[in-house]
Amino acid sequence: MTEKVVLVDHLISEIKKGAFQSNKKLPSEHVLADQFKVPRMVVRKAYEQLQDLGYIYSKQGKGSYVQDSKIQIPLILSGDVSFTEKMKELHFPFQTITIFCEEVPFDQKIFQSLNVGNDEKVFKIGRLRLIDELPIALHTSFVAQTIFPEIEKDGPNISSMFLYYKQRGFLEFGSNSSTLNVIFPTPNEREILQCSNLVPLLQVESECVDKNSGQVLEHTVIIYRSDYFTYVI
Amino acid sequence: MTEKVVLVDHLISEIKKGAFQSNKKLPSEHVLADQFKVPRMVVRKAYEQLQDLGYIYSKQGKGSYVQDSKIQIPLILSGDVSFTEKMKELHFPFQTITIFCEEVPFDQKIFQSLNVGNDEKVFKIGRLRLIDELPIALHTSFVAQTIFPEIEKDGPNISSMFLYYKQRGFLEFGSNSSTLNVIFPTPNEREILQCSNLVPLLQVESECVDKNSGQVLEHTVIIYRSDYFTYVI
DNA sequence: GTACGTTCACTTGGCAACAAGATACATTGT
DNA sequence: ACAATGTATCTTGTTGCCAAGTGAACGTAC
């Protein structure tokens, strides 16, 4: 066990140092096992963990190779600027696609924060954020039909939630205190964000309120791939 | 590979549900392999990953058992209250011990943020935060000797940095924009925080400034175990 | 009856041999 | 000469067997 961890630590440090950058090929399991005087099984376990972490990939008959290193995006978490505006400022080739708009079953926490009864309809709108075609965040907005009656029909075609709200008379927005959590992705989230199961996600949960009336417009859950972001608060 | 992931997902969900709470013993590798109709090796890999994640532990000859579930601590990240005050408010059996006070070699980023030249002495003071005797965060303060000449001698005995600063004429503190990162622990951090290598850590980096003069008093790096905290910003 | 030792059934841990994919190179047939 | 095919030797992936630790059941000596 401790031998595997030593190997993993060493390899991650080498990868980050760029030691394998020339051809990006890692030493074969047999060679590394001889070098470190450990059974091949230990090297295999280390390589497998590096795969799960997204550092390398292995191909039977060929070898193991380091994954392309990832971009690091500084992300301003606070403030009331929209995600799109934040990204445009940074000149990243940025894109958003709406991937679902569907009614959600009753959920104590969400319904309460939206201040609606359990017989009301609440929709969740999922918008996937991509940079360079790579999915890097999933933005889920929970919206009550009582506030936006046409949300079911409009949902799939909204390009900017903020714009949508503005067009309906809500001019200035704020967000109350956000909660942060570090989570591992569910199978569904893994598929959407195209990451392995050991990539930690930063989950930010907050509410968007209309500054004028104080009304909660949406309950928001955003999950960011933590391997792409540095957060600034 | 995908079989392992399915198993890991399933087991984590069962553990969180408390399905094994009665005796906390997981099914033996052989039994689980039969149930899911997969080779025992797959179960072994899944169990090993759960060990690395800190969910379970295995004992040769006995079996595999779920780890005690962890407390969840709501943590206010913003504001200028000290960590100690935050914890006392929440009535956790809280404790801090200073574990190191040593000079650090030149580091561009740190020295620049402290506004000192590369021939000046800078000390890092490490304070371990414990709740119920469990290490849950490591608070590292980088302090320049030019500002606090006695820091090398005083360092090991400082109970509260804020108090130390106040006693030296700095009355009101603020912090500039903090950066957040999700990282995995280094070997050293694993030993200090007594966690396995797949426990994500939240790293918060900021500066403590004297509101009066605007002078940077310390460069701060705090790492929190993400499995113990929910962060509020 | 009791204390002690043995066996046995079950657990996780480890390993060596084998399977299977990839590639370079030699061999062979035309 | 050239193309197709076999072959040797790399690579990673899989499997099955045995080692080692544990504890309960059992047997036996006293």
TrEMBL record, chains A, B:
Q: Spell out the SUPFAM superfamilies in the cross-references.
A: Chorismate lyase-like (SSF64288), Winged helix' DNA-binding domain (SSF46785)
Keywords assigned: DNA-binding, Transcription, Transcription regulation
**Taking every annotated instance into account, which residue ranges of this chain make up the domain HTH gntR-type?**
1-69
Under the heading Pfam families, the entry gives: GntR, UTRA
Entries under InterPro entries matching the protein: Bact_HTH_transcr_reg (IPR050679), Chorismate_lyase_/UTRA_dom_sf (IPR028978), Tscrpt_reg_HTH_GntR (IPR000524), UTRA (IPR011663), WH-like_DNA-bd_sf (IPR036388), WH_DNA-bd_sf (IPR036390)
| Name of this protein | GntR family transcriptional regulator
Q: Which organism is this protein's natural source?
A: Peribacillus huizhouensis
